[in-house]
Amino acid sequence: MTPADVETVYEALAETLDAVGADKRELFLAKLALLLSHDLGDTARVLSRIGEAAQNLDV
Amino acid sequence: MRPAGRAETDSLYFNYPQFEPPAERAGLSEPAPVAIVGAGPVGMAAALGLAREGIRSVLFDAKSTFNDGSRAICVARQSYHILERLGAVAPFLEKSLGWTTGRSFYRGQQILEFHMPDSSREKYRPMYNIEQQYIEQFLWDAIAREPLIDARWQSEVTGMEDVEGGVRLDVKDPLGSYSLEADWVLAADGARSRLRGMRGLRLKGENFEGRYVIADVQMDHDYPTIRRALFDPDCRRGGTILVHRQPDNIWRIDYQLRDGEDEAEAIREDTVRASVAAVLDELGYAGGWELEWWSVYSANTLALDDYRDGRVFFIGDSAHIVPIFGVRGLNNGLADAHNIAWKLARVMQGRAGPALLDSYTPERRGATLDVFANASKSARFMTPPTPGWQLMRDAALNLALSHPFAGELANPRQMTPYTYADSPIVSADDPAFTGGPVPGASLPEARVGEGFLSDLLGPGFTLLAFDAGLTAGLAGSDLKTVVLEPGSEAAEVLAAGPRSAYLVRPDLHIAARWTKATPDAVRRALVRATAGETA
User: Fold this and answer.
1) A33 inside 8 A of chain B by CB
2) Please, what is the Cα angle at B385 between B379 and B390, to 5 degrees?
3) Is some CB atom of chain B closer than 8 A to the CB atom of A18?
């Protein structure tokens, strides 16, 4: 992905997170995580990314 | 529980027999080779298993009839093989409803249809639905034909004490009290086992939060025998509902109680009626129905550390309580009964070493722990215990509406028989095999001629060979030899070559296998499988 590609995804996520509303954001993100994990097809990589995403949440 | 005005055993479809305490009082105190406490399906199966081996038993039950309602209703394929070995399967086949398919729905839309493995090479279907009363009735009919079983109803075991070479039981019935000594005791007295308390033993494990009401209703509902699971339905938002068909137009409806929903309120008749009506509405059923029976349970995974305490063995719910989602309560109980019966009989008859009895706990407790692992997964899906589990469950269900792969998370993974991999009486595998069932696994089925592989098994151990030369001189009082065709369907499912052989135990689990079998190797495996003297 080029930086421009990442930015496209970033914007689409921001807009969809607003569009789905506060009470559905968690559900939407969890669905997306499952869907992307399935597409990726690499369990070890997904598990490692889960660990990485859980870092620094309290900064 | 039953509707107001109906007695505990006043069923819409089942006539409960009434059993009297023993009228003939002489001889009640005579010593018993085996005492079995609890004449539910597990206790009765154990008595039949022992009788098939020629062992006499006394079977006690405190009640005067069968279970008040239909608790366990799903009987798995392996249990039908056990029932066949107990000489009791015919009425089960006639009455029960076999099934292979399950459907899961989320917010009214189907997200998963699963099929349990089945084919024309299987003698029995993967699962059968039948009410527990019939299970008990049919086992009882077999017991009534069996002179080696002395069944005593309305007979409560009130005390137990170890004595030299046995156990003394104090028994009370409406006509009096007496004591008798038994060489061995099988405690089949259920989840609230009094014998367990008398031995100072406790079940250990987890209690899950989810509580379910199970209700049986009678109705003319036109839907095949397919298990339905409704997640987050309109009639019970946030909850899960299971629907099963049983014989006699009886339908089992399990529905989950909400967090904080008062249990006493939930099991009141009018509440149950309103809840059932809402479920039937959700199913699109508009006809009449009658309420038969209901109860409440929670999903627990509890087991004894050791199923043996001296001369007392715990079998069935007295040893382990499993969540119902895996349909393993009754099925594992029957396997416990079958497992201890062939071992205890052989030890009592001097055909096996006493250490054989120490293989009961690792084999059967191992099966329970395996259920715990699977059932805990199912329970976490059915009744998510924390916000994280809840969110992921909801995400999976929601995603399943558009992407079927996520629906597989709702598959209850109805278990296959447990493999006794760590059993002290199972031989190490022959690494030269490239497939087929490993030692400890249950024997797979295959078509042989007009019948099935399992039809060829002897009452004790069986050697399945593909070379008649191997079996010469091996057959004995407890070993039947069967020669199968190389290249046959049986050879295929066993991944067997012309010199391969399998040693099958009386409970249909594999004791040992070889790609190049020799008579000596077979003899050694048989010694190991019976904890006999090592040569």
Assistant:
1) yes
2) 95
3) no
Predicted ipTM of the assembly: 0.96
Chain B: give the shortest CA distance to residue A36, in Å.
12
Which residues from B are below 8 Å from A34, CB to CB?
392, 395-396, 399, 406
Closest to B320 (Cα-Cα) out of B307, B310, B311: B307
Whether residue A30 and residue B406 make contact (CB cut-off 8 A), yes or no, is no
Q: How far apart are CA B535 and CA B532, in angstroms?
A: 9
Axis-axis angle for helices B41-52, B329-348 (nearest 10): 30
Question: What are the structure tokens assigned to A17, written together?
Answer: 């997170």
Say how far apart CA B373 and CA B396 lie, in whole Å: 20
What are the residues whose beta carbons fall under 8 Å from the beta carbon of A46, sequence distance 6 or more?
A: A37, A40
Lowest-pLDDT range of B238-252, B266-280, B318-332, B480-494: B318-332
Inter-chain residue contact B392 with A26, CB threshold 8 Å = no
Contact B406, B400 (CB under 8 A): yes
Q: In B426-529, which residue ranges form alpha helices assigned H by DSSP?
A: 468-471, 489-493, 519-529
Mean pLDDT to the nearest integer, B84-91: 97
Do B292 and B216 touch, CB atoms closer than 8 A? yes
Query: What residues of chain B lie within 8 A of the CB of A27, using their CB?
Result: 391, 394-395, 398
Interatomic CA distance for residues B437 and B443, integer angstroms: 7
The CATH number given to B447-529 is 3.40.30.120
Which pair of tokens denotes residue B207?
């209690």
Question: How far apart are the C-alpha atoms of B406 and B403, rounded to whole Å?
Answer: 6
* Best of A31, A32, A36, A40 to mutate (most B CBs within 10 Å, chain B): A31
pLDDT digits (tens, 9 = 90+) for B167-220: 999 999 999 999 999 999 999 999 999 999 999 999 998 776 678 899 999 999
Nearest CA in chain A to B404: A35
What's the fold here for domain B32-93+130-201+304-370? FAD/NAD(P)-binding domain (3.50.50)
Domain boundaries, chain B: 32-93+130-201+304-370, 447-529
- Is the pTM higher than 0.90? The answer reads yes
Strand ranges (E), B10-147? 32-37, 57-60, 74-76, 97-99, 101-106, 109-115, 127-129
Cβ pairs bridging A and B (under 8 Å): 24
Q: In the predicted model, what is the mean pLDDT of chain B? A: 93
Yes or no, beta carbons of B403 and A27 under 8 Å apart: no
The span from the CA of B230 to the CA of B240, in Å, is: 6
Whether residues A34 and B406 touch (CB distance < 8 A) is answered with yes
Q: Could you tell me which chain A residue has the CA closest to the CA of B409?
A: A34
